[in-house]
Design brief:
Aldehyde Dehydrogenase, Chain A, domain 1; 16% strand; 12 strands; alpha/beta
Length: 285
């Protein structure tokens, strides 16, 4: 049985025990630097010749990791994989979908120092800001999971004599998720899992300056046994694959956090009906 939702508590790094745990996490993460992370499209893990090198902004000689760089064809494959997965995922019971988020929150909570340490390296965040970012990601997972359980069934509407009225929320389809660099775990996880828990499937294009933390989060969702194709991971340039996933006729909605200039461009591109498109796309900007 789920407990009442409560936001995660922060720690005080002036105290010895949290400081010790963070130093241990930093030592562990430093031993993991420089690894490669593939694309994830459907059930496939795809190593690409071209890669994005994630660099510690506080140490230009320190590579955090190498993340696969998708091209336009691979971005289209990701949308197709998400479209296929949507047919079954959209019919999964809302409570079952929510449990994936609750489980992911438990994993992040258990590894809170490790994920915080990744952001210390990848973004040069101060310890407390990195820790807060991880806590916020956990909060999103816990809150959205509970809200899906609450909203998953029939909702009452204004009663009218002689009628039985109810409202039900339905999944839309494939969502293009384009998060920012400054909260590379919290906002990315929140945008991604909000779409997933409501029965949609996702093509995630993380910020190119902080793609490793996104790759680590995708690994967490895989550990939760999220079905293949529900979450597709395709880092790459906005000009090449960003436009591809926004303009694809099977993309149903786009969630973006970033600059006004890019947001306006996405809004304009999403408004144009593509050949074969059967709906008007929605944007969350």
């Amino acid at each position: 049985m789920l407990t009442t939702y409560r936001p995660e508590s922060y720690v005080n790094f002036a105290e010895a025990e949290p400081r010790k745990k963070m130093l241990e996490a930093l030592k562990y993460v430093e031993s993991q630097l420089g690894k490669s992370y593939p694309l994830r499209i459907g059930a496939q893990r795809i190593d690409t010749d071209n890669k994005i090198a994630s660099i510690n902004p506080g140490r230009n000689d320190q590579v955090i990791g190498y993340v696969g760089k998708a091209n336009s064809d691979q971005a289209q494959q990701a949308v197709a994989a998400a479209d296929i997965a949507f047919r079954s995922w959209s019919r999964v019971d809302p409570d079952v979908r929510a449990r994936y988020l609750i489980k992911a929150a438990a994993i992040l909570r258990r590894r809170v120092y490790e994920f915080s340490a990744w952001m210390v390296f990848e973004e040069s965040k101060p310890w407390i800001e990195a820790y807060a970012d991880t806590c916020e990601a956990i909060d999103f997972l816990e809150f959205y999971g509970r809200e899906m359980m609450r909203l998953g069934g029939a909702q009452t509407v204004t009663p009218f004599e002689g009628e039985e009225n109810e409202l039900r929320y339905v999944p839309l389809g494939v969502g293009a998720i384009i998060p920012p660099w400054n909260f590379p775990l919290a906002i990315m996880a929140g945008m991604t899992t909000a779409a997933i828990v409501t029965g949609n499937t996702v093509v995630l294009k993380p910020a190119s300056t902080a793609p490793v933390i996104a790759a680590k989060f995708v690994e967490v969702m895989e550990e939760c046994m999220l079905p293949p194709g529900v979450l597709n991971f395709v880092p790459g340039s906005g000009a090449e694959i960003g436009d591809t996933i926004v303009e694809h006729p099977r993309t149903r909605f786009i969630a973006f956090t970033g600059s006004r200039e890019v947001g306006e461009s996405i809004f304009q591109k999403a408004a144009k009906v593509q050949k074969g498109q059967i709906w008007l796309k929605r944007t969350v900007l």
